[in-house]
Amino acid sequence: MTLIYIDPLFAEHATPRGHPERAERHVAVLAALDGDGTAAIPRRTAAAASYAAITAVHPSSHVDKLLAAVPSSGHIAIDADTTMAPRTMDAALLASGSAIAAVDAVLSGAAANAFVAARPPGHHAERSRAMGFCFINHVAIAARHAQRAHGVGRVAIVDFDVHHGNGTQDAFWDDPSVLYVSTHQSPLYPGTGEASERGAGNILNVPLAPGTSGPAYRSAFDGTVMPALTEFAPELLILSAGFDAHAHDPLGGLLLTDEDFVWITERMMDLATTSCEGRMVSCLEGGYDLSALGRCVAAHVATLATH
User: Fold this and answer.
1) pLDDT below 50 — which residues of the chain?
2) How far is Cα 179 from Cα 237, in angstroms, rounded to an integer?
3) Residue 138 is among the residues annotated as catalytic for this protein
4) Reported pTM
5) 114/43 Cα distance (integer angstroms)
6) Beta carbons of 46 and 100 less than 8 angstroms apart
7) Quick one: CA dihedral 250, 251, 255, 259, positive or negative?
8) How many other CB atoms are found less than 10 A from the CB of residue 64?
């Protein structure tokens, strides 16, 4: 069984007018998931992540600083791209809590896989720095929870967002128990993700030139990503599912189609089946063309439920 974790609170993280990471993203995802093929998939809500779960990845000083910065009204700027509103941290903590609940469901056998339809995203959040629309790193927190609460030894995180997940790389830079794999456009924000960035041998970056389309992407994925994952043999697979590598996305220059994201999902399900008894959690990251985002999320989740 596939589960979807979703909550109205994710639309309450407000951003300034014209900001690409806006509440309408959540509305588009929800509408798409209410369509044919995914409407019958069970929905779940979760509790906010605990302070202990968050500080397993982020230093308490950083978490405390974020919580103290929450404004009573309006917006405050964390950096040039990242703004905080009154419900921002509530939504971020719930996003991490939803990722944790999804891990619990999958590892307990209550679900085969799960999709976390949350915002704000998290993969740019470094251990001690909020940036790139992200405040805390949901996939990193979920991975560490899987290890500490469930005794999972090896976790693989695969990030197919158009932007490199510098925060996830930072979280596990010297930790060989977590394999972090990222396909992303380069050059592009945040300017990290070169192939030479290897951590403790557990970081695999696959930078792609602007204009890369589906066939070249699939070739790189099968030639580089799949062998590394197979060799690592994860016990749990977590996806940073960004859909901004789509050809219609305004923030990237890759040329993937809806069908390419279905293909990625199928390849990840194949790996999960052979390596970790199908146990996979997918967490929404980017995707800023509302139509493409909705279609690709629905196709991704339908594939999770049927492949």
Assistant:
1) none
2) 10
3) no
4) 0.98
5) 10
6) yes
7) negative
8) 13
